[in-house]
Amino acid sequence: MMINPRQKNCTRRSPSIPRELLRRGAVHLLPLYSLLRLSDLAREGIDRSGSFAFADHIYLGVPSGRTVLGRWIDALLLRMPAARAFQRRCEYARLTVRRVLESHRRSGEPVRALGVPCGIPRDVIGLADLPGPGRPSLLDRIEYHGLDIDPDVLDLARTMTATCGFGVVAFHCGDALDRAAYPDTTFHVIVSTGLGEFLDDDELLAF
């Protein structure tokens, strides 16, 4: 199944949100809109909702923004239940990969993991920080593959996983709904966070 490569890689856009608020008679929301844009998280969400940078900001959980007020607003947003749930899915993915890795401890064979779409793969990058015996020898048995439609994201992911200590790291540029984009191998664990909510039922079933 093939889709337009831009179809799921673009998010909703508005030529001017302030103008739209004025059109709707919601003048009282203009000060709130201006305040929210001081937060890096809110501004990324407004300008490019669903972007990899938006997700990564939540996964990292470090407040940032324009001025002290912007950082304070950013911290408030990161403490919201929705953001906490967002962070937990990354943590759960990381722990799942770790459990699979440890379950194959005795085999001595590589453990192949796939992230699709991988974005900036905080789920596996964080493995290096998890406590546990034999961590370095476990990490060098990971064969990690990341698939994403955005080549710029893959460049960032490649840089950020370079020092994780994995045995093999490979990235593939392609559409998650195109079977031909996937590496020709089998995997012990596959992680996917953030794509399902952008797909309709038929696309989700195909995925």
Based on secondary structure, the structural category is alpha/beta
Poorly predicted regions: 1-6
Order of helices and strands: HHHHHHEHHEHEEH
Spatial sequence of strands, sheet with the most strands: 3-2-1-4
Provide a count of the helices.
10
Give structural notes.
By secondary structure, the protein is of the alpha/beta class. It has 2 domains: 17-79, no CATH class; 87-206, 3-Layer(aba) Sandwich (Rossmann fold). The protein has helices spanning 17-23, 30-36, 40-47, 52-60, 67-78, 81-103, 122-125, 135-139, 151-161, 201-206, and strands at residues 111-115, 142-148, 168-173, 189-191. It has a 4-stranded parallel β-sheet with strand order 3-2-1-4, with helices on one face. The longest helix has 23 residues, at 81-103. It is globular.
Brief sketch in words of this structure:
With 207 residues, the protein is of the alpha/beta class.
